[in-house]
Amino acid sequence: MTDETTIVPLLEPREGIPPVIDDAAGLARVVRAFAEGAGPVAVDAERASGYRYSGRAYLVQLRREGAGSALIDPIRCPDLSELDAALAGAEVVLHAASQDLPCLAELGFHPRELFDTELAGRLLGYERVGLGMMVENVLGFRLEKGHSAADWSTRPLPEDWLRYAALDVEVLVELRNALHKELADSGKLEWAREEFAWVLASKSPVPRSDPWRRTSGIHKVRSTRGLAVVRELWTLRDGLAREADLAPGRMLPDAAIVTAAVELPRTTKALTDITPFTGRSARRHLREWLAAITRARTLPDDQLPQPSTPGDGPPPANRWMDRDPVAARRLAAARAVVAALADEHHMPTENLLQPDAVRRLTWEPPPIVDDETVAARLRELGAREWQVGLTAHPVARALTRLETKGEI
What are phi and psi of 115, to 5 degrees? Predict the structure, then answer.
């Protein structure tokens, strides 16, 4: 942990703010320079979450020893496949890689070897793993983080935003080197390598069958007719937002959808009494919003959505004691084991073993519970070998102990 009195503000990139690369000739120069560089490549991407519908990158930052830093405008240079090929043998350093890998893949950039500084921090037990705090605690530099939530689709990008973006990769390789040493010293380096490989191999999650059910505040809607209004408004908003490339919440906030579902307005006047419907983006589509509500109000009963849809996994854990007290005791025993192991190895429980894997294992355990069957089930549920090696035996022992005591 760095002493607060020794922390140095990191205000300017070492070579100054690099020019934004926005044409083929400039990109070719970057490709050559980074191909000739040495060691790991620090990479970051800025999106416009909260402003745009898409998750695309609006700026890509790179840094490598011998090449310096580069800022690439992926709107003007949307194909980074040549850069990808030039760096095929290099380790790519990202912070919270799962957030940036999808938008980098859209540009044709696919790391083959990864070091994720956020994930390394979690495995090492750092309590705060944001990039700024990791750089501060590990390296003793303070980063300016004022533009992390900016609208990066803005053009031209302001100079202070570009400075912030360049600084995000300025010391990322140094952070990687320090964390690599900590992982090696603590015996966790191979664990980290398994985790990094798993992140690279992970596929995009399958879209939910009813994504509208994630509308914030939907619990306030008590009727199936109201749920139909949520479904109609959410679906309309999603299509309009996609077409306009606008974040859905900027088109119409979730709170407006929920209020309309509760109040079921029948006229434009009643609709505009719900304040968010008078916003500039929402007001353009008043007739469409009202038509969607009318469709929901007039649907036959057999076409109304059910209050909830069955999932493919166990019920929420807080219902287990009522639904299956035996499974609830198995879950409590397994959770206690995982929590103790996580504390012993100084990491969050969810990084030692995913909570969903623990729930699924204990809701439907193998017919015969022993080290081998528990290990096999954990592998099926996505646990990595290092996680299986640490948890399978103690979890199996805890579950068999319950059987021996006659508690299950």
Answer: -130, 115
Range of the domain at 180: 4-201
| pLDDT reported for residue 5 | 65
With CA atoms as reference, report the closest residue to 395 among 362, 363, 367, 364: 362
Edge-to-edge strands, sheet with 59-65: 20-21, 68-72, 59-65, 38-46, 91-94, 113-116
List alpha helices for 245-370, DSSP H: 248-251, 254-263, 268-272, 280-283, 286-298, 320-323, 325-344, 349-352, 355-363
Q: Is 165 exposed, middle or buried (0-12, 13-18, 19+ CB in 10 A)?
A: buried
Number of structural domains, the chain? 3
Q: Are 371 and 377 in contact (CB under 8 A)?
A: no
Question: Which tens digits make up the pLDDT trace of 281-299?
Answer: 999 999 999 999 999 999 9
Q: Please report the pLDDT score of residue 406 as a whole number.
A: 64
The letter for the amino acid at 333 is A
pLDDT at 147 (0 to 100)? 83
Per the structure block, which two tokens stand in for 318? 């807080």
- Is 68 within the bounds of a domain? yes
The beta strand positions in 117-274, using DSSP E, are: 141-143
| Secondary structure class of 10 (helix, strand, coil) | strand
Is the distance from CB of 331 to CB of 356 less than 8 angstroms? no
Check residue 408 and give its pLDDT: 55
Q: Which residues of the chain have pLDDT under 50?
A: none
Amino acid at 125: G
Is residue 310 domain-resident?
no
Flag whether 134 is in a domain: yes
Asked if residue 119 and residue 225 are part of one domain, the reply reads no
* pLDDT number for residue 158: 96
Residue in 373, 339, 379, 341 with CA at minimum distance from that of residue 357: 379
Looking at the domain assignment, is residue 312 inside a domain?
no
- Does one domain contain both 45 and 192? yes
Q: How far apart are the first and last CA of the chain?
A: 46
Q: What is the pLDDT of residues 74-109, one digit of tens each?
A: 999 999 999 999 999 999 999 999 999 999 999 999
